[in-house]
Predict the structure.
Amino acid sequence: LIAFFDFKRDRNRKGLQFGGMLLNPPTLNDIILRSFMIPRGYFLEVSDTIYDMLNGRVWMGHDIEKVDTPLLEAEFKKINKPAPTALSKIDTLHFTSSDTALGKIAIQVGLGRQAYGSCKDCRKNLKAIKKCEAFMAIVGEPEIKYEDDVHP
């Protein structure tokens, strides 16, 4: 299963938001959905659920390398627990920052736009990815160059 998630501070920077889905890889249909608004000091209460959802899976999300992963590691460190680890990561920021026609279409259909609600962001980004997949089926698959840190 692919763990598609968004983890960030809330608007007022007083708490945290976690939205995550476990996806069936061939269809990208969600199997499990979890969403938490986490007040300051309550991360311990949801840490086991977040750990179980993410640990040892392929992680997918927008800007997870620079934003979500460091925040996740910091929060687990604060409660003296090991942070979950990814089998590999698919960071959609690499895709939207590419200079490909499909990358530009991905931006137009909303990939990476923040709705400020972790669960909303996950759903919105997944919908954009499915639109890109439909577009690829119509025009044919583009030539893709993978970098070392991008999961194919």
Notes: The longest strand covers residues 29-39.
